[in-house]
Amino acid sequence: MAVETLTFDQVHLGVPDPEGAARWYVQTLGAAPGEHVDRVWFGAVRVIFLKNESPAPSDGAAIDHFALSYADAAAQTNAFADAGVRVTTPPSDRPGLGTYAFIEDPWGSKIQLVEDPERLGFHHVHLRVPDPDAARRWYLERFGGTRALHKGRLDGLQYGDVWVFLDAGAAPPSRGHAIDHVGWRTADLRAKAAELKGKGVTFTSEPYAGPQAPHAPVLMSFTEDPWGVKIELLQRRPSL
User: pLDDT digit string (tens) for 180-209?
Assistant: First the structure.
């Protein structure tokens, strides 16, 4: 039986001032303002800010980083550096994969800048797990997606235009880190939750109604993968 491929919806970042962080992402990284003051858009993916007075850096956690793609990653890195953004890894070339660099936002979220002209904007999330092959199977069997080689080289999972890559390594759970969780959406969350429970998924928060606001999900829930990646599963209004 085919598994429904869920839609990658969001990355949720912990920051002391969600509204201020959203402004920084718009003014400094060029994100589009979101449907609410606590979020921004990179293409069709939301970056949503969760209040956390002292988030731990994401580097080395179960959700290590997310990536943004630009037509010229080196030039974009230099522009960010000129704007005062912390560059943790200067631009370099990886054979067959192109130019990449790493920056860090003021609250400890690690962000990779990649050069992939076919997929500009939000590009991927990168997870750190002890057994990448087992993790890929876990996601494919529960959230769908397509296993593929990015540029014929890098093994990953595709959810529409968003990639999920996995590296081997022990890592603390993402909860409480600067990249706190990631989210997928489905058209019928209660039915999906029942299906996932049949596959051994435990929910830390059962599906419940979102806030009474136009930008909020109709239903939302939380779980974790077996390696500490915090996951939000949600159902949005058809127009969102």
Answer: 999 999 999 999 999 999 999 999 999 999
- In whole angstroms, give the CA distance from residue 99 to residue 83: 20
Task: Note the Cα 44 to chain centre separation in Å.
Answer: 12
DSSP 71-116: S-HHHHHHHHHHTT-EEEEEEEEETTTEEEEEEE-TTS-EEEEE--
Q: What are phi and psi of 67, to 5 degrees?
A: -130, 145
Q: Does residue 240 sit within a domain?
A: no
What domain range includes position 82? 7-235
CB 135 within 8 A of CB 176: no
Is the per-residue pLDDT at 51 higher than 60? yes
Assign 105 a pLDDT band (cuts: 50, 70, 90). very high
What are the tens digits of pLDDT across the range 121-135?
999 999 999 999 999
